[in-house]
Structures are given as structure tokens and as C-alpha cells.
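Quick question, first post here. What does this chain look like in 3D?
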Amino acid sequence: MVSGVANRAYLLGPDLVLRIPRTEAFVADLVKEAAVIPAARAAGVRTPALVTFDDSRTDADVPYMVLERVPGVDLAGVGGSGGGAEGVFREVGRELARLHRVTPGAVGEPAGVPVEYDPDAGAPHRLVGVLLADGMLDTEAARWLRGWFDRLAERIPGALPHVLVHGDIAPQNLLVRREPLALTGIVDWGDAMWADPAVEFAKTPLWGVPAMLDGYREGGGAGADDGSYAALEARVLRYHLTWALARLRAPAPVPGERHWTAPPASRLLGVLRFFASSPPGPWPDLA
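> Answer (accepted):
Ran it through. C-alpha cells below.
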């Protein structure tokens, strides 16, 4: 048995995986996955096929699903930012370009998918103001951050597209083959939503995002060519920076969690590490 945050997973021989929600609170996510997985596969995304979904509750007290098993280990288990991981992220970008062709109203649109992450332009400023009032930031740091958000806003178009996003493209949800390192599948669709495509790149460590965006543009991803080469990067960075600051409001550590953002300072240090490592263009112009 493999236990995740939302589901327990049991291997059914070499080819199948049984997934059961840990509690009633996670049932809605499993129901959503049952609708999203076929749509993602129809779009050409490499994700395990849905074999069975049973929400009758006759065999168990919660719904369950059976998926085909994809070979490989998750990228979080491989560890590190080298060893071909950038190549994996480039592959993931191409997969996301296919997924993001699924838009609201499209043929085969999955049911039960919420609309999320559509913050107004002033949200980062209000967050900075709250952190200043709470004593988490000094006045000069707050002024500098507001200026940074203003410069990013100048590059962000007013109308943002909504597409189907996976919602949790993080290393633990990317299955890979070790030798040579290559993507074998994307799993765990419980956070899928209709959202700005840029949000899809906000749960990946920032050092991996340039390669992912390269693959995304190669695949003709939604909004990748919106008149400003740096517009997509600016939107991605706004999410990373906003969520890094929001974590300061809930700084309690979460020992044992595998997600790279579980340690309270990880996002903020990730942004610092990224810009200190001489990132490729157009990133330096966004700092």
C-alpha cells in the first residue's frame, strides 16, 4: 500500500492500481479525477488510463477507482536538480501544451471542474500590506515588493485565458524512468481546475520552470504567444512570489511531507536561489 495525502493506493498485480479516498473529504476530488482523466488522455496527455470508477458504495463505503499502472518512480524520489531533470520538465511542458487545448465549452469537456485562481490585480498589494501590519515585513521591504509586483503587472495582459489545468504539477506527481531519465506519466488529477495556464507552472520548483516553458512553447501552449515574450514568465513569477509571501502567514513546518513547498521558507528561498543562479532570459528582466 502507498498512502498519499488524499488517497490510499494498492497495487493490484503488475498492471493495475486501486485508489481509495482516505476520508469523505477527498471523495469530491476522486469524482473529479474520474471525469478529468479521460479528457486528458483524449487530448494526448500521458497519464494512466481509467479502468474502473465505482461510486455506488456497494463494495466500499466510499467511491474508488482502478487505474492502469505506469512504470517508473516519481521525480521527487530521484532527487536533485540535475541528472536530466530539466529534460523531464521540457517533456512535461509539451504534455501541458496538449492539456491546455481543453477549454470551457470544448467537446468532451469534463464535468465538475471548478474555476479557480483568478485573483484581482490588487491581491499581491493587499497581501504585502497585511504582512507589513503583522510585523512580518519592514517598511522598506514592503515598498520594494510592491514595486516588484507593479513591474510584473505592467507585463501581464488584462484578460487571461481559462484552460483545463492539472493543478499540482510537482515532482511527486511526475513519474519517470531512471536510465536515462525520462517522463513516463503524469498522475493525481484531484486539483484539476479551469484557470490561467500560468498557474500550472507555480507548483514546480522555479529552477525547473524555464525548461518546462521551453517545452510548452514548442508544443504551442495556450497563451505562450500573447504578444509579449515575457508575459507568461511574469504571470508565473507573480504566482511563485505571491504564494511564497502567503506562506509567511502560516509558517508552521509540516514534517514528513514530501512536497517541496512543505517547509515554510522553501518557496521564498527557491525564488532567491533561482535569481542568484543567472537564469536565462527573459527572467533577469523580471527581477
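The helical segments are 27-42, 75-78, 85-99, 123-133, 139-153, 209-218, 231-246, 266-276.
The longest strand covers residues 7-12.
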